[in-house]
Queue: 2 jobs
Job 1
Amino acid sequence: MFPSLTLLLLLAGSIGGQNPAVQVVLSNKGLQYGSHVGAGWIQDKLNNVTIPDVSGKISLGIFGNINYQLSGFQIVKCDFPEPSVEFFQPQPGITTSILGLSIALTGEFSANYGFIKIGGSLQVALFNVDVTSLMDLGKDDDGHLSVSSNNCMASIEALDVRVHGGSSWITQFIIDQAKWWIKTKIEKSICVGVEDLTADLECHLKTMNVSLKVNENLLLEVPLTRPPVIDASSLNLGLKGEFLSLISPHEPPFQAQNFTMGPQPAFMLSVGLSDFTVNSASYSLFSDGLLQTNITDSMIPPASPVHLNTSYMGSFIPQLPVMFPGLMMALHVHAREFPAFIFQTSAIKLTILGAVKAFVIQPNSTLTPVFTVHADSAFSGKTWIADQSLKGSVVMDNFTLTLADTQIGTFKTDPLESLSKFALKSFVLVKLNEKLAQGFDLPRWKQARLSNTVLKMEAGFIGISTDAAVQLQDAAHGLHP
Ligand SMILES: *[C@@H]1O[C@H](CO)[C@@H](O)[C@H](O)[C@H]1NC(C)=O
Ligand SMILES: *[C@@H]1O[C@H](CO)[C@@H](O)[C@H](O)[C@H]1NC(C)=O
Ligand SMILES: *[C@@H]1O[C@H](CO)[C@@H](O)[C@H](O)[C@H]1NC(C)=O
Ligand SMILES: *[C@@H]1O[C@H](CO)[C@@H](O)[C@H](O)[C@H]1NC(C)=O
Ligand SMILES: *[C@@H]1O[C@H](CO)[C@@H](O)[C@H](O)[C@H]1NC(C)=O
Ligand SMILES: *[C@@H]1O[C@H](CO)[C@@H](O)[C@H](O)[C@H]1NC(C)=O
Ligand SMILES: *[C@@H]1O[C@H](CO)[C@@H](O)[C@H](O)[C@H]1NC(C)=O
């Protein structure tokens, strides 16, 4: 039973290209929330935006030119409507339209025509400004998500300019002439602004690490394995999701299986994590020889009825205290194979093929090997999220102990097997289940907090769906959209 489970895992998914082991799905609800937060951020930024000065000249033919300058613009009011955002198919993209934006500005105005100089203050109102833009999504060669501005259109339906001061008919004449030009210039600069924002975002995405150092042993690789996949209601990112050893990096002898996440429109974000990811960590730790430990009597609580000495072990292995009377013992425990996880709809199955090598500790501290047993165990676990904590429970399905090697002659392993089973069930699993029942808090960040998080065990993967509350640097926005 035990070896066949591992074999099944090794063979499964060994055909085909590289499937993503982690999938991140942004739903329409998430997109709308993101857009709401982004709009708030832009509204805040707009209050501080600096508008470049405008200068130009109006040609009066043989009568020369009027030179003018509009400067010192400040936004006094901006009604920024909620943008409308949609996933764009089939090429992956996101369209944004902002319809009916209006902005009121103040500024200074000066002009000269020959030796005539005029000047005054300006009030500019832009009505029904419409901006639509399409942002393309893709994947670069290093597996970063990439964004680019594909199409941007901005139109201003009406522009109203009032001037105070100066010689008003000549001023009005200049303004009337310059109006169209100002309108075109602003329309263009809106799209330049959109392109700049997109370029900033692209820059930010390019510098993101697709290899995260987990600890001194493991690296988590999360580049995109394929371009984003989009439909009318969601955006799906497929990530490699593989742990690699930092000591001796090499690919595991098994591959991620394809899995399909069902739509979760009620949640902003869903993440699917396949058993491949967990197994790649298990494989790396095993390959680097990290899945081993030594047990000595000093690690066993004094009150325990079980002790690592030859007289106690004599009740299971009669010849041991005869050959080595009154000596303490030590155990070397290691995995013979990488512990294999299989995710199912009803449970997470874990198979551990282990070996225990027993030693007696001679009075001169030399370790003398006495026997080796194979200890194979199978566990079933469940995991769920409650009160924003990850919780779980584990039961032992099977445990067998067989004699693999002996320096002291053969002995029956059944009594030792029963003892080990009892010790695992009544001490190790009880402690573990207490910890799992308490749970582990879900991660929190300064700028984002998860809410309504649920976890579902599925065949081949675990799906986590959640809402989030995001707080961008200077904007404060509510918990729920
Ligand atoms: C436990 O494992 C042994 C050895 O692999 C197998 O023969 C036995 O059927 C298993 N028992 C259960 C309940 O799965
Ligand atoms: C806006 O500008 C003021 C003063 O120049 C500065 O203190 C403030 O932090 C800026 N706010 C934003 C949102 O950039
Ligand atoms: C990215 O990874 C490199 C190398 O592991 C590390 O030096 C750097 O600090 C990381 N950058 C970020 C933003 O995490
Ligand atoms: C994985 O599944 C998707 C959708 O079900 C399918 O389009 C794709 O071809 C599959 N990939 C492989 C390598 O089987
Ligand atoms: C366990 O003991 C053996 C033999 O003394 C030693 O080689 C090994 O490094 C030890 N392993 C650990 C994990 O302490
Ligand atoms: C060996 O273990 C038994 C039972 O746990 C204990 O009573 C005894 O004191 C131990 N002997 C030594 C030498 O530690
Ligand atoms: C330690 O004692 C054992 C048993 O008495 C003996 O076989 C071994 O050679 C000794 N080792 C050393 C290094 O003295």
Note: The longest strand covers residues 116-139.
Job 2
Amino acid sequence: MTNFADPLLRALAPYVPGEQPRLKGVVKLNTNESPYPPAPGVLKAVQAAVEGMNRYPDLTAGLFLQQLSKETGVPQNLLMAVNGSDEALDFIFTAFAWRGVAFADETYGFYPVYAARRGIVPTIVPLREDFTLAVEDYDGYEGTVFIANPNAPTGLALAVSQIRGLLKRNPQMLLVVDEAYVDFGGESCLPLLQEFDNLLVVGTFSKSRQLAGTRIGWVAGCKELMDVLQTVRSSFNPYNVNSMSIAAGAAALQDKEYFITCRNAVVATREQTITRLRALGFTVTQSLANFVFASHLSFKADYLAQELKEQKILVRHFNRPRIQNWLRISVGSDDEMETLFAALRQIIKPGIQA
Ligand SMILES: *Cc1c(COP(=O)(O)O)cnc(C)c1O
């Protein structure tokens, strides 16, 4: 048979998302969702949207972007709603990757896939020995740089002042800051949009807003960059965000108190989790995200992941040389973390109290 596939796709290793089992009783700590349900107002808003399902969605996602603009202080015309921030990243690659792309060796696993899909060989800039990202390593680069801040899977964050310095020294560089985890203790770069026209900021409602299942996110940048992204969107799928997701996102934004309560709960649980993991002999990074990144002194990460899985506890293990002895564990509810620690105590050393 003729090979009909685009040559670019033949050798492409696609992104491998964490498992999404639909079984009951699984403790799911593998894809960094919120363990808490959506804000109470979301259900009603989605129900109302379902009633208007016979019509195409609002092309401007106005209900959502109006709220988002109010919350972030970014003018509505400099924001775009997307079908999960993965879509924003894809739009950005389509529009701006032609000048070349650079990112860290250990960061969001989708960046190399987007590059490969366009036949682009990325410039890989290794993180330092302690997994920190040194912004000066990117100085002079002439293409598009992707930085997840806080980074995944390390959880380590840069200060806005460091990013401002990078932008200031490098007007030739387009910088994309992926803020999927910023709400858990990082500093948002959105205020920098007032100063710089070589910055795009990407965000999602999947991690800190209890809406991973609706697929809603956003991208922000100066007028010129957003015009290009609107061209990409309008030449791909103008109705990229469905009406239920628009309604859900807007309703989630309206309940700021619920957002803060959930966020604070995750942050408190994260801090306890880090302390308890260290007590069990793990090395743990100082994560500012809704996951922890941990490596045990005497137990291999893939062994631990496998043992936990047998007890229906899912964590993420990446089979990449530099981090193969590390686990990324999402911060769940306190009950879920109790289950995790009960299992870990059993696996690691009976008798130790974490
Ligand atoms: C989860 C994640 C995304 C994708 O989020 P969606 O909005 O669910 O597509 C993007 N970037 C990073 C760093 C992430 O961890």
Note: Residues 84-86, 108, 148, 152, 178, 180, 204, 206-207, 212, 217 surround pyridoxal-5'-phosphate (CB under 6 Å).
